[in-house]
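Sorry, explain these tokens?

___
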Amino acid sequence: MQDTHDNSNVKAQILETAIELFKNNGVNDTTLAKIATAANLSKGTLYYYYPTKNQLVEEIADLHFTNMENKIYKWLNSLNLETTESDFLNLLTEEFDFDSDFAKLHIALQSEAISLNEELAEKFRSKYDEWSLLIEVGSFKTGHDIAKKLKTLSKIFFVVYNGKVIQDLMSTDKTSLEDILRALL
């Protein structure tokens, strides 16, 4: 294997490869050796950038969390006093429309958090609290009575989202996230 230690894209290559392997095999079944082989790197090069698998998992989780936050902030920035209750839900669910790659990584990271990695589990808990608060802020930004309903909905949105992601990945239900949220309201 060629050691491309001087290549400025090596870190990105490692991250992309690890994300693909995490999505396809899960975090637990993906070793640093498998990542190095799939990325066509020496183990030494991989260990130079990520001495432990946990550091790599943490960086990928942070990237994933940033992507999730970007979706929420994009949605928040689309809201105003003229946003109707219907538009509120439509805009929110559009941001979280099913993306197989995003969903697979989300589930792989959650599985890691549930089974093995308490630090990652704590990050998820903290992020869910932050994201729920942002959804609640969005509900108040519209000035509608929906704000009272959505204070509660903000807490369960990610429960519904996680369940919907699993259903979509397994192709078991075609009910839209928006329809599920409307039923809850």
